[in-house]
């Protein structure tokens, strides 16, 4: 006989898993309290790297059913969710997701749903990369610079170089230009001043 488990996750301590537990019960899944696993952990952590989920996986046996309210309870992105579901399926565990109408993600319908979700997620990721690259190209064409702003203007850098060549100590130069010693030492390294 299959056993029913529930996995409920929230990201921060000021959130509660109680709504997820109630949603599972209101959808007709009667889960024994000792088979409800709740944990507070960021969704950016892969499912099998979470302590609560890892312990739950150790308890699951072939024929068991795992219920979650949403796909993001299982993973940080579509690829992670898919890998988690495939690993559960390989262990003989069925996975039901309430947000997808309670569909078993290991069934043929569930697998098709997962493939569509994965394809959409991959498409969105590719679009994001394209938009980012396009924005970077446009910004560069407009003359915008990237990275941390320079600590010294071009004129200040020339003055620092002149003082370094004249033998003025790094600490004194840094104090005069209200910058760090490391900034002055980087200038010194770039002009190969005798130390």
Shape: elongated
For the record, the count of structural domains works out to 2
Mean pLDDT: 89
Tally of contiguous helical segments: 7
Main sheet summary: 5 strands, mixed
What class do helices, strands and sheet pairing give?
alpha/beta
Strand content: 5-15%
Under CATH, the homologous superfamily of the largest domain reads Resolvase, N-terminal catalytic domain
Query: In angstroms, what separates the terminal alpha carbons?
Result: 79 Å
Strand order of the largest sheet: 2-1-3-4-5
Run of helices and strands? EHEHEHEEHHHH
Write down the Rg: 28 Å
Helix content: 40-55%
Number of strands: 5
Can you characterise this structure?
Helix 5 packs across helix 7 (181-191) and helix 6 crosses helix 7 (181-191). This protein is of the alpha/beta class. It is elongated. It has 2 domains: 4-117, Resolvase, N-terminal catalytic domain (Rossmann fold, 3-Layer(aba) Sandwich); 154-191. Strand 3 (65-68), helix 3 (78-90) and strand 4 (94-97) form a beta-alpha-beta unit. Helix content is 49%, strand content 11%. The mean pLDDT is 89. The protein has helices spanning 18-26, 51-59, 78-90, 108-141, 154-165, 170-176, 181-191; strands spanning 4-10, 36-40, 65-68, 94-97, 103-104. A 5-stranded mixed β-sheet has the order 2-1-3-4-5, sandwiched between helices.
């Amino acid at each position: 006989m299959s056993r029913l488990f529930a996995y409920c996750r929230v990201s921060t301590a000021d959130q509660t898993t109680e709504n997820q537990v109630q949603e599972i019960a209101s959808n007709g899944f009667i889960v024994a309290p000792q088979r409800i696993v709740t944990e507070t952990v960021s969704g950016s952590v892969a499912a099998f790297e979470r302590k609560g989920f890892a312990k739950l996986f150790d308890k699951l046996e072939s024929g068991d059913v795992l219920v979650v309210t949403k796909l993001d309870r299982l993973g940080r992105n579509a690829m992670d969710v898919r890998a988690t579901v495939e690993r559960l399926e390989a262990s003989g565990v069925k996975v039901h997701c309430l947000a997808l109408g309670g569909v078993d993600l290991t069934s043929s319908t569930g697998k098709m749903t997962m493939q569509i979700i994965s394809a959409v997620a991959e498409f969105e990721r590719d679009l994001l990369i394209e938009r980012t690259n396009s924005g970077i190209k446009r910004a560069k064409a407009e003359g915008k610079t990237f990275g941390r702003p320079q600590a010294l203007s071009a004129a200040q850098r020339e003055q620092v170089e002149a003082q370094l060549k004249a033998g003025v100590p790094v600490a004194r130069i840094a104090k005069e230009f209200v910058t760090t010693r490391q900034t002055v030492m980087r200038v010194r390294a770039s002009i190969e001043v005798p130390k």
